[in-house]
Structures are given as C-alpha cells and as structure tokens.
Amino acid sequence: MACHADLDEASAGIGATVYGQKITQEIVRKILHGSETLVFKPNYSDFAGKYERAGKLMSINRQSQPLFILGTQRSGTTLLARILSSHKDIFIQNEISVEKVFEGVNDPAKMLSLMDVQIQERHGDSLEDVLQKEGKSVWGVKDPELTYHLEKLEQFIPESKMLLILRDGRGVVNSYMENKWGLGTNAYTGAIRWKEEVEQLLDFAERHKEQVLVVRFEDLITGMEAELRRICSHFGVEFDPEMLKYDKKKAMFKENPHNVNTNKAPDITLAEKWQSRLSPREVGIIEYVAGDTLKAHGYELAGEKVCPSAIERAYYLVHQKIIGEIQLQWQWRRSLIRKKKKAGTSVS
After folding, report:
1. Distant-in-sequence contacts of 110-116, Cβ < 8 A, 24+ apart
2. Cβ-proximal residues to 53 (8 Å cutoff; 6+ apart), any chain
C-alpha cells in the first residue's frame, strides 16, 4: 500500500518539473524551426496582435475544421502524420508552437488563424496556399503537446475528427530514455509520465467516441492497410493506396535523427525493441507503475512487477529533475550549434 501511495507523490513531483521543461522544449523548437529570436516567456497575445495588425491571419470558416492527431511523445505520431500526408487529399502539419495557439485564446476561429500563422512560419505560405500547391482539400495538425490542451480542443467538437495513437508504454519509455529529451530519464518517471498522459488522452477519447478514433501503433505497423482504411472511414475520405508508399515520398517536415525511422517501411522490430533494450528490472518497474493501463489496452505483461524502495523512488525523482534538465539544455545547445554552422557563424 505504501508503494502505491508514493506513486501519487512521485506523480506530483514530476508534474512540478513539467512547466520548466516545456519552456526549454519551446526554446529548442524555436531553433529547430529556424526562429531568429529566442523568447523565454513569449507574450502570446502580442504575437497574435502583430499578425492581426499586419492583416496576415487567414480567414478560415467553421466548415473547414482541422483533423487533430493526438498521442504521447514517441508514440508514433510523426509516422502517422507522414503516412496521412501521403494521401492525395490530406495535409497534416507536423507540430506547431501549441502554446502560441491556445494560451489565453478561447475563440476557435482565432485558434484556427493562429494555426495558419504557424504554417506560414514553417512553409513560407499560408495554409490556403499550401493546400492549393499540394492539391489537398483536408488538413490537420499533429503535436503531442495537444495533450495539455484537450479542453481547448473540445471547442472543435463535433466538427473536427481526431485520431489518438496509442503505443506500448514499455516501448515509449525506452524511447524516452534513448532519445534523451528529458521526457523520462529512467523507467520509473518515464512510466509515470506515459501512464498519466495516456489516461488523460483515453478519458478524452471515451467522452468523445464519435469524434476520436483510437489506433494502436503496433496494429498500424502489422496491419497497415486495414488500419488506414479504418482511419480514412473515420475521417470521411476515400482510402488512398499511396499512403502505403509513404516511405518512398518526400516528407513535408524537416527530418532529424529523432524522426529518421519515418523514412523506413513498416518494421515491427522497432515496436519490439524495448524487449532487448530494457532490463528485466526496468520492465518490472514500468509494469508496476502502468501495468493496469497496459493490460486494459491489450498489452500483455512480461513478468513480475517491481516496486522500487522509497530510497530508489526518491533517487529516480531527483534523477529526472536534474538529468532531465541537463538533457534538454544539451539538446538546445546541440541544435544551436547546428544552426550556427549552417549559417556560417561561430558559437559562443
């Protein structure tokens, strides 16, 4: 019983670090997308006002509602965005600065306009122009950060259709640890993060069954055509066989080491990699934290659950707080170096 009680305390401890890490992630994202100025805490109302005064906000009516692709980090959302964008009629924007769209904004029409601003920053064209150039008629947005703005997304229901991709938490936690973005620096904190976010997303999907379709990453990989037909039916578009050739097409987003696997054909070994990368103890810890959630969605447990001692749990929380921030700062520094080299300037 004590172990379960301490899980709640651990969850609160991790939540206290999320805000600071999200700020650092936003800074890294600015660099990756080529922003010229880094702002520690942007004033989003000023951001919106600047574009309104310039007359650059696209007028998007309520009939052209976007699709939304939901999921945790490292759950396959980028792969899904790439596959769907291979459809002759669908364009999915791979990530935006979510807080600039939703922070302090309650009008759905304004949110849509701010999404268009984000698309202009990334493509050099408005959403309307991107759709026209690509010959697309359906658009959407994919971003794991949407998990933190589900209340705002409810304003797009029932017009918008949404898709939630769910991946085995052990695979997600292994990816957290290997990619070193501060999401989960160890099995314990990574499992807590995955469980909390997945349960939040699944609760949203349960409340909006008609609008939100849940797809498992593993089912998409092993039975891609059947799952894509199901997805197309949910979105109200015809199935396009070109989606099965997504790996042969040029991605509509900047490729980097973290999304390199989206260049490859479906490979179930990627989904099963955690089985050889995680130690039995790490698997046991993940299954202790999130075993009920895993089983509820068809994931068989691998062995006995491992309840870390109080000292171990304290260590894992400190590890997450310190190493997580170091990882984010390292990613920021590495991204800055790449940007400076590309621009031919020195890094101080």
Report:
1. 110/48, 111/152, 111/155, 112/58, 112/60, 112/64, 112/66, 113/48, 113/51, 113/57, 113/58, 113/59, 113/60, 114/47, 114/48, 114/51, 114/57, 115/66, 115/141, 116/57, 116/58, 116/60
2. none
Candidate from 21-25, 137-141, 165-169, 325-329 with smallest mean pLDDT = 21-25
Local structure of 308: helix, strand or coil:
coil
Whole-angstrom distance, CA of residue 12 vs CA of residue 321: 12
DSSP classification of residue 74: T
Secondary structure class of 226 (helix, strand, coil): helix
Instruction: Report how many helices (DSSP H) and strands (DSSP E) the chain contains, helices first.
Output: 15, 5
Sheet containing strand 162-166, edge to edge, reads 90-94, 138-142, 67-70, 162-166, 212-216
The residue whose two tokens read 């099965």 is: 244
* pLDDT tens digits along 257-278: 555 565 667 788 888 999 999 9
End-to-end CA distance of the chain: 52
Tens of pLDDT, residue by residue over 109-143, are: 999 999 999 999 988 999 999 999 999 999 999 99
Q: Hey, which residues does 343 pair with through a beta bridge?
A: none
3-state secondary structure of 162: strand
Q: What is the pTM of this model?
A: 0.80
CA angle 126, 92, 225 (to 5 degrees): 155
In sequence order, the β-bridge partners of residue 91 are 139
Question: E strands, 12-137, where?
Answer: 67-70, 90-94
CA angle (196, 194, 206) in 5-degree steps: 55
